[in-house]
Design a protein that fits this description.
Oligomer: single chain
CATH topology of the largest domain: Aspartate Aminotransferase, domain 2
Number of domains: 2
Helix content: 40-55%
Strand content: 5-15%
Distance between the termini: 50 Å
CATH architecture of the largest domain: 3-Layer(aba) Sandwich
Strand order of the largest sheet: 2-10-9-8-7-3-4
Order of helices and strands: HEHHHEHEHEEEHEHEHHEEHHHHEHEEH
Structural class: alpha/beta
Radius of gyration: 21 Å
Largest sheet: 7 strands, mixed
Length: 397
Amino acid sequence: MFESLRAVPADPILNLSVLYRQDTNPNKVDLGVGVYKDEKGHTAIMEAVSRAQERILSEENTKAYVGIAGSKQFCDLLAQVTLGADHNVLADKRVAVAQTPGGSGALRVLAEFINVAKPGATVWVGNPTWANHIPIMQSAGLKIKQFPYYDRASKEVDFDGMLATLTADTQAGDVVLLHGCCHNPSGADLTLEQWQTTAELVKAKGLLPFVDIAYQGLGEGMDEDAAGLRLMANLVPEMVIASSCSKNFGLYRERTGAAMIISSNAEHAILTQSQMNGVIRANYSMPPSHGALAAETILADPKLKQMWRDELKTMRKRIKDLRSQLVDAIKAEGIEQDFSFIERQKGMFSFLGISAEQVDQLVNKHSVYLVSSSRINLAGLNQHNIAYVAKSIAAVL
């Protein structure tokens, strides 16, 4: 049986980490893998998380399963963080929530749920989108179509192209996958006015919005980053949301996230919860507990919650500062090409807007590691390497 198998190509982003570790250049810089790093290049454990874990270790008295949908307190608290504690869909009990193994787990659960509701449904994804969106959707049995999202010439959202395609080519029952904030890979987000227009189109055409919000809090703030998602939830009868705690809680390896399904009424929400639980039971059966327990401990404790928000604010400010510093450092190298778009974008990612050949030169000649699309993780920069990165960019230009 196994002799017919062929090797799967290595993930291009994860493969960069392997090459980076093997590189002996003392000036090497990793701008590839999308994790937050501090000034020392370390993905540290947040202090609020450390304190929550200390409490867990002293108080936890069982390792029994947490149930198919996970911890109810975690699900309730994360739904409030994502949608806003006073959102009408929560008050009306229209939301079904399940704790999942990370944001990727939430995406897969929701994709399989959609395939149960409408087998072979079409999912429209932006071009570009996160590299794993399409494989996750396809492996769940859904069909993929794309709409224009990022204009590489203007370095802005191609909203006219996006709107034209979704207006002309979508059918009732199609799914539209949107990034809640801090678009990966471009860093270019929809404005609140564009969210409003998109929500009205989605409602008018009978589409299902699927919002992936993996970076809430790393753009403008927890509430600001979720404003578009909340606006959408106000207008449409049905919606699905994949939320992640990997970035804003730093719980990468704990695989902590949630899948949320908004239904048209409370009765349908009970039905969707049972269907989502069925998908989970046939997949991984029960979610891991530790990361969600840490997150709920923080969110349930006012002091820990404020400590976490303060830490997140520091991370957010650092990313914004790095954006400005990189633009200034490139200017200082005498480069005439305009990189000011990097300052206008949000979150950890941006495209440099250089060619694949120039990316190869950055990697092979200068040991500055980034993916071939020219996407960089701004959080990989620090005061020790930013000048070197700018000089390397100038060299390949």
